[in-house]
Amino acid sequence: MSFAQIVIGPPGSGKSTYCNGTSQFFNAIGRHGQIVNMDPANDALPYPCAVDIRDFITIEEIMQEQQLGPNGGLMYAMESLDKSIDLFILQIKSLVQEEKAYLVFDCPGQVELFTHHSSLFKIFKRLEKELDMRFCVVNLIDCYYLTSPSQYISILLLALRSMLMMDLPQINVFSKIDMIKSYGELPFNLDFYTEVQDLDYLLPYVEKESNSVMGKRYAKLTETISEMVADFNLVSFEVLAVDDKESMINLQLSVDKANGYIFGASEVGGDTVWAEATRDQGLRENNIQDRWIDNKELYDKAEQKRREEIEKDREMQEKEIDVDNEDEWDRALKDWEEKQGTDYVR
Ligand SMILES: Nc1nc2c(ncn2[C@@H]2O[C@H](COP(=O)(O)OP(=O)(O)OP(=O)(O)O)[C@@H](O)[C@H]2O)c(=O)[nH]1
Question: Region Disordered: which residues (predicted)?
């Protein structure tokens, strides 16, 4: 059995940054994480990746050969991969079975791939079946969407649609939450938006926004969508600032629970310390309103201080290592010999 995350979300929501941050986080806790790039258009990866879909297919080739634009090209690329998937699966197999790696799949930003199109879905289902992989989808949404009530409701619909389409455990995440305070005041606490309850309270704001932007029929449509999302009662959110250790830990705890890693990771990973520390632990209560809005500056200052202390410790350690450095030792010995007038050879 092996475990993996499938990272999805609209363009610019922070997927590649998250994959990079997660890989560094895994290194720090001793988990053997590897990243797989699933985006045939991403030619500037900010991380080292173990398998790159661009080794099989690139969007440039497809666009040229098929005379397609970027969106059509991507759909075509995914369909083509679907047909010639065996080599790709072989590479994944070697990662999960021989290297016992925990995989993070960095997916393209075209949301149609997760809401309507079945190619990627089929690839993951095949991996699930053939390699006994356990997935959790991590759906990143830029927290900027919280600033507009109607856009907030539309991303709820998007999240719901991908949950139903992918048919896998899914954690929805408001990314870049460190930016939320700079976007101005929200009418409700952050928990209101993450827990997705009582959407009725939002409707007057939708109406107000629609009056000024789109008109009454648009408000009615948004209202109906919000009722449908509330009826399913499936969508909720975590928050993430990729540089913030606590939000990363909280998110990884949720993901570990969702894909089952927390219950059966003894044969993979190698992060026994993390596993022991989190095995019996529920999610920590975390007041996100306090952390990211009400007292953000205080928390940021404390975090900055913590980082400076870690950096100072690291510098001290490096200095101590210098004492063990062969060259320095030899130099010190030579000085001592000169002073003693001896020819002592170590
Ligand atoms: N402030 C802040 N910025 C972030 C965070 N995560 C990502 N970003 C920034 O958001 C921008 C987009 O991030 P990417 O990781 O390229 O987003 P993506 O979803 O991979 O983008 P596509 O590949 O175009 O779909 C970059 O400038 C990142 O530095 C975060 O937690 N906080």
Answer: 304-324
